[in-house]
Design brief:
With about 350 residues, the chain is of the alpha/beta class. It has one domain: NAD(P)-binding Rossmann-like Domain (Rossmann fold), CATH 3.40.50.720. The strands form three sheets. Strands 3-2-1-4-5-6-10 form a seven-stranded parallel beta sheet, with helices on both faces. It has a three-stranded mixed beta sheet with strand order 7-9-11. It is globular, with a radius of gyration of 19 Å. It binds nicotinamide-adenine-dinucleotide and thymidine-5'-diphospho-beta-D-xylose.
């Protein structure tokens, strides 16, 4: 394995992954990204001149573009990050989610088959499992938990996972699937909880908390997700699913209070708004399998990761101020104007 095609590498996790791989491995990386609102080449400006890195603007739904890229760069493995990734946007309109997340994955799987690619890793999510009971802390998602997605986003990701497994069984494709919990860290688009709350607090604007703020998410620092993907890519068994999590459950409201506290801002900035429809109450990942079989563990403690993340958003205000404009403002108005009660 020498040449790795990373789809969606200009987004949050993909760009962190590319930097992690260039730092720790000797692979050539081809970043294939459509550059939607979430794709930003600035995320990669510090490595864009690395000889092992190439950027191609392309759409995973476009068979010709995908095939040309695979032929030209003699691709050995594919890691698929490319997706529409925001639950609230999937509630406002599901079509792009179905097209990119499902059809795009099918195009990639067919290309894996046609060009006998050595490995295909599908970056999936814990959201495919639906919601956990909040009062039974011993219950977590395992790889055997049935799929039960609640949003159009998670339904599209679950569909893509099923396609991957079907191609493994039917065509014997070298497929690997990872399902990770909520990531946080530098370069996360400020539509997601942690960067949105940091940006709002720094701007002294209201912080919109959905429902009662008691929903639970299991937070993992993005670099730990990247190291887990590398483990699975190197040592994972084809046809297998690997859950990845931080063993780090937080109520949303406590995350919001923590951010305000660290920025020395008043809790009066919190604004409870109407709940997200179909809002999953609790996510929690059981990572026993990846720990035992692939010897992976997260390295970052939440207290350190959140400090690093807040520091990054303080020091990179130009980055997030630029992306919180134009199309984003229209989305923000559409999503949040319906939620103010
Ligand atoms: P993101 O929205 O920040 O980035 C998505 C990237 O995909 C962008 O660069 C975008 O331009 C690109 N893209 C979108 N449609 C494309 C297409 N048709 N062709 C090529 N490129 C396209 O997303 P993220 O948060 O970095 O998530 C990356 C992946 O990880 C997604 O598959 C997501 O489901 C999964 N995931 C995310 C999290 C999380 O907490 N963010 C957790 C678990 C899994
Ligand atoms: O303004 C907000 N207010 C709020 O209370 C936003 C944007 C979110 N929330 C809540 C909803 C969730 O309970 O915070 C929690 C986290 O929300 P998001 O950041 O939108 O993440 P989530 O819906 O949990 O999904 C994320 O994790 C799994 C990623 O966006 C997905 O791509 C990934 O698959």
């Amino acid at each position: 394995m020498r040449n790795i095609l990373v789809t969606g590498g200009a987004g949050f996790i993909g760009s962190n992954f590319i930097k992690y791989v260039l730092k720790n491995f000797d692979y050539n990386i081809i970043n294939f990204d459509k550059l939607t609102y979430a794709g930003n080449l600035e995320n990669l400006s510090d490595i864009e001149t690395d000889k092992r890195y190439t950027f191609i603007k392309g759409d995973i739904c476009n068979e010709n573009q995908v095939e040309e890229c695979i032929k030209k760069y003699k691709v050995d493995a594919i890691v698929n990050f490319a997706a529409e990734s925001h639950v609230d946007r999937s509630i406002l309109g599901a079509r792009e989610f179905i097209i990119t997340n499902i059809l795009g994955t099918q195009v990639l799987l067919d290309a894996v088959k046609k060009f006998s690619i050595e490995k295909f890793l599908q970056v999936s999510t814990d959201e495919v499992y639906g919601s956990l009971p909040e009062d039974q802390k011993e219950i977590k998602f395992t790889e055997k938990t049935p799929l039960d997605p609640s949003s159009p986003y998670s339904a599209s990701k679950a569909s893509a996972d099923l396609l991957c497994i079907a191609y493994f069984r039917t065509h014997k494709l070298p497929v690997l699937i990872t399902r990770c919990s909520n990531n946080y860290g530098p370069y996360q688009f400020p539509e997601k909880l942690i960067p949105l709350m940091i940006a709002k607090a720094l701007n002294n604007e209201k912080l919109p908390v959905y429902g009662d703020g008691m929903n639970i998410r299991d937070w993992l620092y993005v670099e730990d997700h990247c190291s887990a993907i590398c483990k699975v890519l190197e040592f994972g068994k084809f046809g297998e699913i690997y859950n990845i999590g931080g063993n780090n459950e937080w109520h949303n409201i406590d995350i919001v209070r923590l951010i305000l506290n660290k920025l020395s801002k008043s809790e009066d900035l919190i604004l409870f708004v109407k709940d997200r429809p179909g809002h999953d109450r609790r996510y929690a990942i059981d990572s026993t399998k990846i720990k035992n079989e692939l010897n992976w563990e997260p390295k970052h403690k939440f207290e350190d990761g959140i400090d690093k993340t807040i520091k990054w958003y303080i020091e990179n205000q130009n980055w997030w101020k630029k992306v919180m404009s134009g199309e984003y403002l229209k989305y923000y108005e559409l999503n949040y104007s319906q939620k103010i009660v």
